[in-house]
Model the fold of this input.
Amino acid sequence: MSFTKKVLSTKNAPSAIGPYSQGIVAAGSLVFVSGQIPIEPATGSIISGDIEAQARQSLTNIKAILTEAGATLENVVKTTVFLANMNDFAAMNSVYTEFFPHNCPARSAVQVARLPKDVKVEIEAIAVI
Done:
């Protein structure tokens, strides 16, 4: 069995802040996007503000990595949303709907004790191209 693995890297999304890749294309058709926190790629700064602003930046970062893989948000089949506070679920959902207005991917959403850089949200995605 032959296996291919391509590392994704784009300046349009934040650089990895640890020993991981922004994303991986596996077997030519599966795209795994690492969890994206609300870092503005050009400045490397965390987007301050409410959960809506942070969710929007996290999803924008996912979109940029998918573009590097030759995919779009339409290709996403599964996301996982990590929230610092589950009380932010409805507000995050309103932004999520902007990015996935129809044919939404499968999704899990969980509250976690803490996220990198003390952000309010982290989102990861799996897509098929």
Q: What stands out?
A: Residues 36 and 54 are 10 Å apart (CA to CA). The longest helix spans residues 51-68. The chain has a mean pLDDT of 96.
